[in-house]
Amino acid sequence: MLSAVRGLKPDLVWKYFARISRIPRGSKNEAAITQFVLETAKKLKLSAQRDRLGNVVVRKPASPGRGKIRPVALQGHLDMVCEKNGDKEHDFFKDPIQLVRRDNILKANGTTLGADNGIAVAANLAIMEDRSLEHGPLELLFTVDEETGMTGAANLEPNFLESRTLLNLDSEEEGTIYVGCAGGKDTTGTWKVSYEKAPEGTVFAQIKVSNLKGGHSGLEIDHGRGNAIKIAGRILLALEAVGARIFSIKGGNKHNAIPRECEATLFLPENKIKLAEETVGNLYSAIRNELSESEQDLAVDFTLDFCKKKNRMALKRTLQKKILQAIAALPHGVIKMSARIAGLVETSTNVAVIDTEKSAMTIVTSQRSSVASELTETVGSVSAILALAGASIRHTDGYPGWEPDMKSPILKTARSAYRSLYGKSIKVKAIHAGLECGIIGERIPGMDMLSFGPTIEGAHSPDERIYIDSVEKFWEFLLEILKRIR
């Protein structure tokens, strides 16, 4: 394990990264990594506190002569996403992550690497140990369960931290500072379904939309990619005009992902099969043309089964119409771009999942915005469409956004630090996805925050990799900021 990081700089950061790679730390399974942090703090004679959720803060006194400087919190999350390739034998509850080094890249052998956000954990542990660093009073904050709900950050008590300046170490692009993120909320519509016998003279059929790129519903919502549910709904609405009766629709699987596939089962009048085939073919050609730059592999499969006799049931006609109209009416994609930061999506919505069960049909949508009032408006708009279509509505609790403050004192310090180190300006961005900064800022009012980190690609997948040289630059930048804080 240590051989993969031997000789890498900064040595303390890589030492701790290798150590924590041996500790299971999937979301909601952070007990062992929490204990490791507490034991390390005790060994280093640093005070540590754990709250009822499992968040940990370790306090390190200021270096000599800097005791009167305002305290600063350095924050990352303890948990990681646990994903592996299908042919990989790995138990995330007991097996260590197998580190693999290839030139300037560190990755794992067939699993997620856990650099998200293990690199922040390792950096905080390294700062705890290194007595040679120059800094004011520090609070090293380790939060839990970021990946499956941000529940650690969401339950922070305001008095858990003294600091009102926070450096979040959970971004993935070296040379970039993030100063804002989106808040989000899911809106789900549910219809109680009722069926009737499919009309006589109809043939069982299937429509499947597939081979779309999908992607993260925040980070890639502005890439012009197709939404399989919206495409399938468009085809089904056209087929309804030739007498189609639907039995089920199923598409998407995650609230925060653009759906790549959607499949519907239905019945078509046998005497209108040719018209149905022409309808599907014409729509497929039109949609391929619309998405020619972003979805070259789009597939729409239309199959018939003249022999299928069982389960000849279809949604009642009025219910079918409501559901198809709801799919057509629901917005998907960018709602508004930011006027403050060029190229930033400010508000969006995603039609994420549709599923038919025995007694219910459900559509899950996800709204995001870095402006709280716009998030509320978009949630209300989506809810109104679903309600008008006769669905019952429910919402998740959601999480708050983080509005950019371009006059932030810590931003000014960080910009100066980066220019001093590298002779050029650092990029300043906001991200159309959730960061713990939004929640922490709500829990602890007045917190001045930044987010930055080394370059990580493929997070949340077995392709996850971290660029080794970016870690050294990230570390230098972090230490230079700490030196400059007054």
Short recap of the structure:
The protein has 486 residues and is of the alpha+beta class. The chain has helices at 11-20, 31-43, 115-129, 151-154, 228-240, 273-290, 317-329, 372-388, 409-422, 436-443, 468-484; strands at 47-50, 56-60, 72-77, 99-102, 105-108, 138-143, 165-168, 176-181, 183-192, 195-197, 202-210, 245-251, 262-269, 299-305, 313-315, 333-337, 345-356, 360-369, 392-395, 427-431, 448-451, 456-457, 465-467. The strands form six sheets. Strands 1-2-6-3-7-21 form a six-stranded mixed sheet, with helices on both faces. It has a five-stranded antiparallel sheet with strand order 16-17-18-9-19, with helices on one face.
Describe the structure.
It contains 11 helices and 23 strands. It has 486 residues and is α+β, with helices and mostly antiparallel strands. It has a 6-stranded mixed β-sheet, with helices on both faces. The protein has a 5-stranded antiparallel β-sheet with strand order 16-17-18-9-19, covered by helices on one side. It is elongated and about 90 Å long.
Unreliably modeled segments: none
Arithmetic mean pLDDT: 94
CA(first)-CA(last) distance? 39 Å
Number of strands: 23
CA-based gyration radius:
26 Å
Structural class: alpha+beta
Neighbour order of strands in the largest sheet: 1-2-6-3-7-21
| Percent helix range | 25-40%
Label the overall shape.
elongated
Oligomer: single chain
Strand content of the residues, in percent?
25-35%
Individual helix count: 11
Biggest sheet details: 6 strands, mixed
